TrEMBL record:
One of its GO terms (biological process) is mitochondrial electron transport, cytochrome c to oxygen. It comes from the Eukaryota. GO terms for molecular function: cytochrome-c oxidase activity. This is Cytochrome c oxidase polypeptide VIIA. GO terms for cellular component: mitochondrial inner membrane. It comes from Panaeolus cyanescens. CDD domains: CcO_VIIa_fungal. Keywords: Membrane, Mitochondrion, Mitochondrion inner membrane, Transmembrane, Transmembrane helix. The chain crosses the membrane at residues 14-33. Its main location: mitochondrion. It is found in: Mitochondrion inner membrane.
Length: 61
């Protein structure tokens, strides 16, 4: 008794997988960018601003 081929399942599942992958990828990208990256850049910028102010103050002395 042969097994009947499964038709149409792969195509439907493919689009679901692609949609989920793109959605989760974009969500993860936004989470990284706004949750970590921008805060790290802000901390770095604040450090360099503080360092520049200290150098300017020491140069005046």
């Amino acid at each position: 008794m042969p097994i009947a081929p499964i038709t149409g399942k792969l195509r439907k599942r493919f689009w679901l997988d692609i949609g989920c992958a793109l959605g989760l990828g974009v969500s993860a990208g936004y989470a990284y960018w706004y949750g970590y990256h921008l805060k790290a850049v802000e901390n770095q910028e604040n450090f360099y601003i503080k360092l520049e102010r200290e150098r300017a103050r020491n140069a005046q002395s």
